[in-house]
């Protein structure tokens, strides 16, 4: 065998051994592509977990929504995103969501799906229903859980009472929000692991009203507005006002804000 042939075989063996060793240590091709850039990690359930790498093509799943209205809106995370702007959900991957049915009023699941569809249509984010879960609704939930696989947990929509959650006391009918978490590489943050907690007793009372179903859907939509990054506003003509005064649909400022939070950049894989 010629000397050059021996060198080629040795080189190929070295590459194969490196690839095998990298696979055994959990190194992905994304890690190889970002060689020299440390993979970000978080603490989850008492363990250090590397940030899951975004999968799929870096292109929007739904068209970006055109901003066609003017009005009041505010953001929960005004900077820290990949473009230096707001922290938002990645529009190039589905936003999964699950429902924790304990305490949910009978027949209310369709109303939840309708509210999610409204958020999807106004943000241009693709929401994907992943079924029901027995995970308790909590803002302290681990961001990565074995039950959902090697990825961030989906948005969780659940129901509690004031006795179970004192934050639902008084006129508070729901709570909502997401976590701002870095991508696998770099400093840019994205929204992850949203949570909506609805007051089961309040929702049941609202449903007894003549316009109850529409009002209850608006409550869910309002909390999902927080999940995608909208904050409260002072304008009573907007659904994102802290106290909904029987509004059942988005106001002009809501629509402008929802289009903005849905116009984030794709997370690199």
UniProtKB/TrEMBL annotation:
GO molecular function: metallopeptidase activity
Gene3D superfamilies for the chain: Collagenase (Catalytic Domain)
SUPFAM superfamilies: Metalloproteases ('zincins'), catalytic domain
Protein's recorded name: Matrixin
Taxonomic source organism: Demequina mangrovi
């Amino acid at each position: 065998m010629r000397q050059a042939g021996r060198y080629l075989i040795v080189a190929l063996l070295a590459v194969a051994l490196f690839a095998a060793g990298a696979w055994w240590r959990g190194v992905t091709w994304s890690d190889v592509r970002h060689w020299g850039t440390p993979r970000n990690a978080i603490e989850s359930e008492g363990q250090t977990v590397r940030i899951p790498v975004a999968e799929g093509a870096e292109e929007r799943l739904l068209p970006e929504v055109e901003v066609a209205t003017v009005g009041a809106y505010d953001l929960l995370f005004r900077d820290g995103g990949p473009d230096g702007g707001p922290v938002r959900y990645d529009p190039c991957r589905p936003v999964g969501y699950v429902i924790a049915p304990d305490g949910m009023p009978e027949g209310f699941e369709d109303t939840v799906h309708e509210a999610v569809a409204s958020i999807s249509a106004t943000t241009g984010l693709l929401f994907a229903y992943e079924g029901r879960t027995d995970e308790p609704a909590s803002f302290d939930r681990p961001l990565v859980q074995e039950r959902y696989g090697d990825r961030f947990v989906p948005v969780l929509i659940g129901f509690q009472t004031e006795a179970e959650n004192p934050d639902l006391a008084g006129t508070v009918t729901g709570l909502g929000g997401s976590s701002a978490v870095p991508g696998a590489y770099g400093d840019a943050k994205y929204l992850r692991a949203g949570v909506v907690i609805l007051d089961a007793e309040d929702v049941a009372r609202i449903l007894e009203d003549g316009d109850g179903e529409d009002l209850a859907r608006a409550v869910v939509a309002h909390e999902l507005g927080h999940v995608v990054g909208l904050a409260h506003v002072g304008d009573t003509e907007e659904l994102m006002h802290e106290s909904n005064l029987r509004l059942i649909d988005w106001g002009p400022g809501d629509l402008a804000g929802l289009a903005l939070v849905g116009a984030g950049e794709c997370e690199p894989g």
